[in-house]
Design goal:
- The chain is mainly beta.
- It folds into two domains: 1-46, no CATH class; 52-196.
- It is built from two helices and ten strands; from the N terminus they run ααββββββββββ.
- A four-stranded antiparallel beta sheet has the order 1-2-3-4, with no helix packed on it. The chain has a four-stranded antiparallel beta sheet with strand order 5-6-7-8, with no helix packed on it. The protein has a two-stranded antiparallel sheet with strand order 9-10.
- A hairpin with a 4-residue loop joins β6 (135-142) and β7.
- The chain starts with a helix and ends with a strand.
- The relative contact order is 0.11.
Length: 197
């Protein structure tokens, strides 16, 4: 009797899908009370197709037509550090991903998350931002000998040219600091950096 009910549910009933969406195949998870097999593409099927060239797939997809929530998720990936500052009537958040070292920007007046740099700095443990968002100190851990390596990453505004097809808004200049820095503190005006070895 149980097998007969299970066969009936699997073959003769179809789970409801959002309007305009078609599915091929089925999953037993569709019929269980604790979840379905909806993929991220299914869940984001209502999002708008309006994106910028610098928007990354790792950032959340949100419909452009929706109102901007007061509390929202701006990254699906682990973040090493972020800075928040005001520009006119808008608040800007710049953050750096732990895995890639790419810098992103989110604004309080827009849903879009823009990738600012394309420089790979792998395995950043911590990032200490300057208050104005012009750069950050990236700390990475060298796994072989457990030495902390610190780099100053400065964001340089790129100038658009006809030869560059997909140019990120910023390039980076990286300068090395002494190894073994344990603690970092930045003066609120960004004029001085204090370190502990």
């Amino acid at each position: 009797m149980i097998v007969g009910i299970a066969v009936f549910l699997i073959f003769f009933s179809t789970p409801t899908t959002p309007t305009g969406e078609s599915r091929v195949g089925f999953s037993i998870r569709d019929y269980l009370p604790f979840g379905n097999s909806g993929s991220s593409s299914d869940q984001n099927s209502t999002t708008s197709g309006q994106t910028t060239g610098n928007q990354d797939a790792a950032t959340p997809n949100i419909s452009i037509d929706q109102p901007i929530p007061r509390l929202r998720k701006i990254s699906n990936e682990p973040v090493a550090g972020a800075v928040i500052f005001n520009s006119g009537t808008s608040s800007i958040v710049k953050f750096v991903e732990k895995g890639t070292g790419n810098v992103y920007e989110a604004r309080s007046d827009s849903h879009l998350i823009q990738r600012l740099t394309n420089t790979t700095i792998p395995k950043i443990v911590r990032a200490f931002w300057l208050p104005n968002g012009s750069g950050f100190l990236a700390q990475t851990l060298i796994a072989e000998n457990e030495i902390i390596e610190t780099n100053y990453v400065k964001l340089n505004k790129n100038v658009a040219s006809s030869t560059s097809e997909s140019l990120t808004p910023f390039s980076t200049t990286i300068g090395k600091l002494p190894t073994g820095i344990k603690e970092i503190s930045i003066k609120p005006d960004g004029s001085k950096i204090f370190i502990t070895l």
